[in-house]
Design goal:
Residues 4-76 form the V(D)J recombination-activating protein 1 pre-RNase H domain. The protein is an alpha+beta fold. The protein is built from three helices and six strands.
Length: 175
Amino acid sequence: HLFEWQPALKNVSSSWDVGIIDGLSGWTSSVDDVPADTIARRFRYDVALVSALKDLEEDIMEGLRERGMDDSTCTSGFTVVVKESCDGMGDVSEKHGSGPAVPEKAVRFSFTIMSISIRAEGEEDAITIFQEQKPNSELSCRPLCLMFVDESDHETLTAILGPVVAERKAMLESR
């Protein structure tokens, strides 16, 4: 989906047309003797967030209609509250098929859009136009990064999630 950040995100590619990327993109060596290209796959955070918002378009429009507003009301931007989670998926050694050897544990980093609110022109308070009714449901959870790593391996998790954190920080400094 076409979108643009103002100002442009720092240290993040200007290309929005990004699919699944190597979770350790830029690394040339292995982590703990596991080939880096087998260890993680992820979406760029802002691309995943925009995709999730696009999926919620009908719910957002319904929220506006319920409050007697239309999409032209939202001229000063909107606020999206996100809940992140990172959880171990247990032993996957029997589940990955006949591909390359991988560590036996997997971890998923994901997010859920909890609420969306707008501040109408000349209004003091923000108005919530979307609220996730089932925030702990698998249906509202958006996977961002899947990693073949033990959740107790903090060094590898830090290496993989470092760029995700950098993208989140860049989004907070833009609109």
